[in-house]
Amino acid sequence: MSTDKNRATAAAILPLVGGPDNISSIAHCMTRLRIALHDRSLVDDEALRALPAVLGVVEDETYQIVLGPGTVARVTPEFEALVEEGRAAGHLPRTPVTAGELAAQGAALKEAQRARNSTPVKLFLRRIANIFVPLIPALIGCGIIAGLNGVLLNTGWLPTVVPALAAIASGFMSLIAVFVGYNTAKEFGGTPILGGAVAAIIVFPGVTKIDAFGQHLSPGQGGVLGALAAAFLAVHVERLCRRWVPESVDALVTPTLTVLVSGLVTIFGLMFLAGEVATAIGSAATWLLSAGGAFAGLVLGGLFLPLVMLGLHQALIPIHTTLIEQTGHTALLPILAMAGAGQVGAALAVYCRVPHNRSLRTTIKSALPAGFLGVGEPLIYGVSLPLGRPFVTACVGGAAGGAFIGLFNQLGAPFGATAIGPSGWALFPLLDGPSGLGPNLAIYAGGLLTGYLAGFVATYFFGFTRQMLTDLDTDQAPTPAAAPPAATEPSLAEI
Predict the structure, then answer these.
(1) Where would I find the PTS EIIC type-1 domain in this sequence (predicted)?
(2) Which side of the chain, N or C, has fewer Cβ within a 10 Å radius?
(3) Which tens digits make up the pLDDT trace of 463-481?
(4) pLDDT band of 327, cuts 50, 70, 90
């Protein structure tokens, strides 16, 4: 039955994005179906947003339909199958009535979007995110298993199962550098397996016999940062080889030189340097939260939503991964997740302030469940950002929740998340820290409640001008969700 439902969702989406022949590629991440389109003008945005399964749409380099965690992984294969069936049957996309005008309009939309989101910094950060996002499902799965194993270990239950769960939870993390190297080479145009091969040097136990910079190397030294740098170097070495090595010996010489040159540089340079950087990141994060406490949490929680809007939050992904690799959890994620709590509080205040605007209240009611689970797009692009001031007051809520958690870090109760990806209530199973499960859950729940309350109060009293209330608190007021602005990677669930 669920398969029929997922196929029905895919079938409803397909004609609204222009049909099978309007699609050049299909992919999905944690929450979104990502589609590359030939002609953007063939997409019916309003009809897509009206579909019950669609939580929102976001336009970036690809057209992104927000379906939520779990759902997107089930709908995407059905969507791919329908596209293939449609192409095999010779199905054509809908033809515009005035092809010239609509084509020009679509080209203008694409160009405007590309100009906004194609700055060198954003493009680079997006590519870094593309390396780590495919790893998130494994990080989540292994993180939850690690949490379960910790509970069994502390309670003394099922002692024979604990070693097995420890192996399952730790196996992926012990080799994460290899996956990062593989994805790095793939993202930057090299041969993925060569990137993985060079990165594998970092986790090879035999590096303990090698002396570099006056000290013996240790397996894993440099971690994901070293793997990223090593694979990036391998891509460039491979390109040089492809340019100068004769085709007759390319299959032998190019892989050998790529692995050899990149491997030597990794062993006698990158592992040490990346290890120093990784240690500095861990020390800086620990110092920031232990010394800065509430103030650090306030700044981090308050600025995260603007960072998301600018696409700069992607720079945090390698930092999160490095912290998880070093300490088993990232202490930054629970604080940053408070931005979502502020967003929920702001949306609840909007709901209360516009009792006569049934369309807006319906949008909020449908988006709140996803917001509580950390999927922020529907509330951001359907409510707060189009209204303006509630977006700012949502940041106030995030700052308050971040300050609450930061304060407890300073008081000696640090904790973090064993994986990146979820936020909101979905982060509870991933919490870990030296204080124990109970205090970790209580502090995080307190932060969420603080974020909800502060976001609500700030929005209720300061989120509207009199003119805004006059315009919005009526049945005839337009629904902000009808035309959310384009965005760059906004999801709180994809940090």
Answers:
(1) 126-478
(2) N
(3) 998 888 888 877 644 444 4
(4) confident
Per-residue pLDDT reduced to its tens digit, 196-252: 999 999 999 999 999 888 888 999 999 999 999 999 999 999 999 999 999 889 999
Backbone angles phi, psi at 301, to 5 degrees: -65, -35
Residue-wise burial string across 357-389, b where 16 or more C-beta atoms lie within 10 A, e elsewhere = beebbebbeebbebbbbbbbbbbbbbbbbbbeb
68: left (phi over 0), alpha (psi -120 to 50) or beta: left
Q: What is the pLDDT of residue 117?
A: 54
Residue 279 burial (C-beta neighbours within 10 Å; 0-12, 13-18, 19+): middle
**In terms of domains, do 96 and 143 share one?**
no
278 and 307 in one domain?
A: no
Q: Is 142 a catalytic residue?
A: no
300: left (phi over 0), alpha (psi -120 to 50) or beta: alpha
Predicted local confidence at residue 73, as pLDDT: 82
User: Is 254 inside a domain boundary?
Assistant: yes
Q: Which amino acid is at 405?
A: I
Read off the pLDDT of residues 102-128 as tens digits, 9 standing for 90 and up: 344 444 444 544 555 567 777 788 889
Give yes or no for residue 355 having a pLDDT over 50.
yes
Q: What is the CATH number of the domain that holds 51?
A: 3.30.1360.60
Helix residue ranges per DSSP H, 208-337 = 223-244, 247-265, 271-287, 293-310, 316-327, 332-336
- Asked, for residue 125, whether it belongs to a domain, the answer is no
| Residue in 29, 142, 241, 352 annotated catalytic | 29
* Cβ contact 267:275 at 8 Å: no
Domain that residue 165 falls in: 132-282
Same domain, 28 and 100: yes
CA distance 26 to 88: 17
Q: Do the domain assignments include residue 127? A: no
56-59, strands of its sheet edge to edge: 23-28, 32-37, 63-66, 56-59
